[in-house]
């Protein structure tokens, strides 16, 4: 199974402004406030999405930095809603002598079926 990088239950701010990911969940990547990066992410259909992202100070008054991900086109296209779960997964790719990684995004929605809560992929 590919390593899970990050998962989160989506909030109203995530779908109206930007997805906030605490930089502490991103491992040892050196990140500084004000830096920006383009995240190349594949969805479950194999479509490549490019999320323009910036490192910002948390607006909640807590200490620490967040990766602010501009994913609003994706949200609209996939009809992401509050309380859905967003998951980022990294897949290691072996190409001949080189090794690379590919980032995937998965969105799941909780549905009630026969009295049971089930997470279904969007």
TrEMBL record:
UniProt KW Cell membrane keyword: no
Source species, domain of life: Eukaryota
InterPro entries membership: B3_DNA-bd, DNA-bd_pseudobarrel_sf
Keyword annotations from UniProtKB, A to Z: DNA-binding, Nucleus, Transcription, Transcription regulation
GO (cellular component) term, any one: nucleus
Localization of this protein: Nucleus
Stored Gene3D superfamilies: DNA-binding pseudobarrel domain (2.40.330.10)
GO MF assignments: DNA binding
Name of the protein in its database record: TF-B3 domain-containing protein
Lineage: Eukaryota, Viridiplantae, Streptophyta, Embryophyta, Tracheophyta
